[in-house]
Design goal:
heterodimer; A: 411 residues; alpha/beta; Peroxisomal Thiolase, Chain A, domain 1; 10-stranded mixed β-sheet; two-stranded antiparallel ribbon; 18% strand; globular; B: 79 residues; mainly alpha; Non-ribosomal Peptide Synthetase Peptidyl Carrier Protein, Chain A; 4 helices
C-alpha cells in the first residue's frame, strides 16, 4: 500500500501578505497586491507594474551579514520555510534530521545578484567579483540554506521548470515520501524576478500586461480584456509529511496530497499545445494517481495567468480532462490578486487551495469582469463563494511545455 | 579617521561584528566568525579602500586585525 502524504504546515510571503494567513485573507477578499514598481525605475519599460512583497524588510528576519549574502529569492524561501516549519510543529517533534528533506525550486534563481556582479565586473574588473556571487546566484541555494537553517539533513535538491517549478517540487516531494526516502519534506518555490533583466526580458516576450494605469485590475485571468500576466515575487513552502508519522506525533493535518500528474507538451518553447493537450493529460494523470474521478473534484485552482493563450488552453484542457464536470466544477485563479510568482506560483496556489479546503471558501478570480466568450466555465468571478471541497486540483504550467497538476484532498 | 578605525569599519560592515569585538588580537576565523569566503571578500574590501593589491601569499598570512594593520603600515598606508 502507498504511504500517504499529508500537509502539516504552510508558509508564504507574497504581494498579498507576509504570512500564509495574511495571504489567504487578502485572496478571499480579492485585495490585489499589484502596484507600480518601486524596486527599480520602471519608466523605460513597457510594463511598469508588478507584484512586489510590500513591507518586506530583511532586517526583520536576518542579521545584516546574512542578508547581504543571501539573494532576495532565497530570503523569501527561508522566510516561508521557517513559517511552514514552525506551524507544522516540527521543531518540537524530535524528527530525525536525516529523515527531513527540502525540495525548494526557483524558476530563475538569483537574477539580481547576477546583474549586480556582472555590472561590477564590467566596471571594476573581473577580479572584483564577490566570492559570494556563485553561491548566491545558483538556483539550488534556497534548498541548501533552508537545510542549514532547519538542520534538515535528508533528501535535498531543487526543481527548475519555470512557472511550474514549485508544482514539481511538491509532486516530487510527495513521490519521495511515498517511496520512503523521507518522513517529512519542506517543498515549494521562491522567486525574485523584479530586476532589470527579469522585467526587460518578459517585456521583450510581450508576455506582460501593460495596463499600467490600473495595476490592481491588470492581472485578469479568463477576462475578455486580459492582456498578459503580471510578474510577482515571493515564496511559498509547505511541509509534506508521511501520514502515520504526522498522526503519531499528533500533528495538525491540514489536507492530503493525493496525487500528481506531470507531462510535457513537446510543442513550443513558450506557447501551450493546441487545445491544452499536455495540461489535459496532466490533470487526468493527477486524478488517476489520486484514485478519483472528475465527479470527486469540487475546485480547480487554475494556472490562469491572464495571457490570451494560457487561459484559453487551460479552459480547453479542463473540458477535455473533466468532461461534463467541467461546467459544474468551481475554478479560480488567485493570480488575479497576487500576480504570477513564477517559480513560487504553484506552491503559493497550493497554500491557498489548502485554506479553501479547510475553510470551505473558494477564493475568487477577483478581477474577472467580462469573461472571454471562449472561456465559458465557472471561474468564481468577483467575490469568494462558500462551498465544500472534497478534492481540489491545482495546475501549474511552465515555459518549456512543462505541466504539473496536484490533487489535494480534504482530511 | 585613523587607520585602525577605517579597518574596524570595514570589518564591521563585512562580518557584521560589533566594533568592540574588533581588537588587534582578534582573529578573523577564530574570533570574528569569518569563513574562507568572508576572508576573500574582506581582503577585496581592504584592497578597494586602501588602493593596493594584496597577493594571495600575503593574504594567507593576515589572520588577525593586527596583522592587517601592520601589513597596511608596512605598505605605506598610514591613515
Amino acid at each position: 500500500m502507498k504511504r500517504r502524504v499529508v500537509i502539516t504546515g504552510m508558509g508564504a510571503i507574497s504581494p498579498i501578505g507576509l504570512t500564509a494567513a495574511e495571504c489567504w485573507s487578502n485572496a478571499v477578499e480579492g485585495k490585489s497586491g499589484i502596484r507600480r514598481i518601486t524596486l527599480l525605475d520602471p519608466e523605460p519599460y513597457s510594463t511598469r507594474i508588478a507584484g512586489e512583497v510590500r513591507g518586506y524588510d530583511p532586517s526583520n528576519y536576518f542579521d545584516r551579514k546574512a542578508a547581504s549574502r543571501v539573494d532576495r529569492y532565497t530570503q523569501f524561501a527561508m522566510v516561508a520555510a521557517a513559517e511552514a516549519y514552525a506551524t507544522a510543529g516540527l521543531k518540537e517533534s524530535g524528527i530525525d534530521p536525516t529523515r527531513l528533506g527540502v525540495i525548494i525550486g526557483t524558476g530563475i534563481g538569483g537574477l539580481g545578484t547576477m546583474e549586480e556582479e556582472h555590472s561590477k565586473a564590467l566596471e571594476k574588473g573581473v577580479d572584483r567579483i564577490s566570492p559570494f556571487f556563485c553561491p548566491m546566484m545558483i538556483g539550488n541555494m534556497a534548498s541548501g540554506r533552508v537545510a542549514i537553517d532547519l538542520n534538515a539533513k535528508g533528501i535535498n535538491f531543487a526543481t527548475v521548470t519555470a512557472c511550474a517549478t514549485s508544482g514539481h517540487a511538491v509532486a516530487t516531494a510527495m513521490d519521495a515520501i511515498r517511496l520512503g526516502r523521507a518522513d517529512a519534506i519542506l517543498a515549494g518555490g521562491a522567486e525574485a524576478p523584479v530586476t532589470m533583466m527579469g522585467l526587460g526580458g518578459f517585456c521583450a516576450l510581450k508576455a506582460l500586461s501593460t495596463r499600467n494605469d490600473d495595476p490592481e485590475h491588470a492581472s485578469r485571468p479568463f477576462d475578455r480584456d486580459r492582456d498578459g500576466f503580471v510578474m510577482s515575487e515571493g515564496g511559498a513552502v509547505v511541509v509534506l509529511e508521511e501520514y502515520e508519522h504526522a498522526k503519531r506525533r499528533g500533528a495538525d493535518i491540514l489536507a492530503e496530497v493525493c496525487g500528481a500528474g506531470m507531462t510535457c507538451d513537446a510543442f513550443h518553447i513558450t506557447a501551450p499545445a493546441e487545445g491544452g493537450e499536455g495540461s489535459a493529460r496532466s490533470m487526468s494523470l493527477a486524478m488517476e494517481d489520486a484514485g478519483i474521478t472528475p465527479d470527486d473534484v469540487d475546485y480547480i485552482n487554475a494556472h490562469g495567468t491572464s495571457t490570451k493563450l494560457n487561459d484559453l488552453g487551460e479552459t480547453q484542457a479542463i473540458k477535455t480532462s473533466m468532461g461534463e464536470r467541467a461546467h459544474k466544477v468551481m475554478i479560480s485563479s488567485t493570480k488575479s490578486v497576487h500576480g504570477h510568482m513564477l517559480g513560487a506560483a504553484g506552491s503559493m496556489e497550493l497554500v491557498l487551495t489548502v485554506y479553501a479546503i479547510r475553510e470551505g471558501v473558494i477564493p475568487p478570480t477577483a478581477t474577472l469582469v467580462e469573461p472571454d466568450p471562449e472561456c465559458d466555465l465557472d471561474y468564481v468571478p468577483g467575490t469568494a463563494r462558500q462551498g465544500r471541497i472534497r478534492y481540489a486540483l491545482s495546475n501549474s504550467f511552465g515555459f518549456g511545455g512543462h505541466n504539473v497538476t496536484l490533487a489535494i484532498g480534504a482530511i | 579617521m585613523s587607520l585602525e578605525s577605517r579597518v574596524t569599519e570595514i570589518i564591521v560592515d563585512k562580518l557584521g561584528t560589533r566594533p568592540e569585538e574588533v581588537t588587534p588580537e582578534a582573529g578573523f576565523q577564530t574570533d570574528l566568525g569569518a569563513d574562507s569566503l568572508d576572508l576573500v571578500e574582506l581582503i577585496m574590501a581592504f584592497e578597494d579602500s586602501f588602493k593596493l593589491k594584496i597577493s594571495e601569499e600575503d593574504s594567507a598570512k593576515l589572520r588577525t586585525v593586527g596583522d592587517v594593520i601592520s601589513y597596511l603600515n608596512q605598505h605605506g598606508v598610514s591613515e
